Amino acid sequence: MTLPGLPQPAPGEVLLVCACYEKGRALWGGLLDETGGRREGDVLVLGGGGGEVRLRLVEDHGWDYLHGGGVPALVPDGGHLPPVLALADIPVAYGGDGPLLVDLAAVPGRGVRVPSARLGEVLAALLGSTLAFDDLVRDMDRYGMYQGDGGRPAFTTPTTPPRRSFPALPSTTAALLVRTCFDDEGGWRALLEELGGADQDGWVGAELDPDEIDEDHYPLTALVVDDRAFEDVQPGQVPALVPLEEHPTLVALADARTFADPGRCLTVVDLYDTPGRATVLPCREVGSMACNLEIGNMDFHDFVAVEGTKPWWEE
Which residues, 6 or more positions from 2, have their beta carbon under 8 angstroms from its beta carbon? Predict the structure, then answer.
């Protein structure tokens, strides 16, 4: 899939990209009014604590359904964009959520949502280096909103990924199970067995008998990635590694926690609402999560445990 490249903004501008369209028409929802900014043609000028921020509004129906993790691949060769980009996606157009800020510098492709009314303030702080993208990640609530009121996640998303590059993940519209820790071979084999065993094509759960499925613990169907090239990959790095042409439901990481925890917990990465956000679930619950996300019955935040509160799947 070839998507249009991002334009080069004027010096001092940040791109605000529309990623939701209806019959070719850009859908901004109420975002442009909620920011409290003023329009100067295709530029939205916002007042922030660190001064004015100029947002270049860009539209192209080729970006319809664009996710934050796919943004780094659209930066033109030799292009120099600001360290952050704002995305007006489906949750903005239809859900009234705040825009998604996409990291283009520290960990390209990860995202955090910010309240629309605070967009100018947060961008000014980021551009003025009084706030780092890591600060946004550490201070987001279960919904992926910076300083939101949805409760602090019980497991915070790591913000210190290894400083090396990783290859692209395989293309699939199903889930991916990616091994990132190679210290416990027996634990890895036990995990695969608990998930039903991997077939000769590298899938778990692909040949299960429907009559034997426990609906309370729906089995995970996932393509297994057992490759040392992904050793130590962190959640924030995952969205940019997913190919644009086929987007999996989710990516589950079998990391060091998986082999230390008796419940064989997996770290599951959000690829859609807040790319790079992570939650931790017992492996027996990840199949139910993938199924519910795929049919739109539940959202990623429904599987994020809140600090100090017993999650529903443990009741």
Answer: none
Q: Residue written as tokens 């990465």?
A: 269
Angle between helices 283-294 and 185-194 (to 10 degrees): 50
Contact 166, 233 (CB under 8 A): yes
Tokens of 206: 């692909």
Residue in 234, 271, 236 with CA at minimum distance from that of residue 66 = 271
Q: What are phi and psi of 47, to 5 degrees?
A: -90, 130
| CA 284 – CA 58 distance, rounded (Å) | 43
Give the neighbor-by-neighbor strand order of the sheet with 111-113.
Answer: 38-40, 43-48, 51-58, 13-18, 84-88, 100-103, 111-113
Q: pLDDT tens digits for 203-217?
A: 998 776 666 666 667
Using an 8 Å Cβ cutoff, are 102 and 277 in contact? no
Contacts of 153 (CB under 8 A, 6+ apart): 140, 141, 142, 279, 304, 305, 306, 307
CA distance 46 to 51: 8
Lowest-confidence segment of 24-28, 50-54, 76-80 by average pLDDT: 76-80
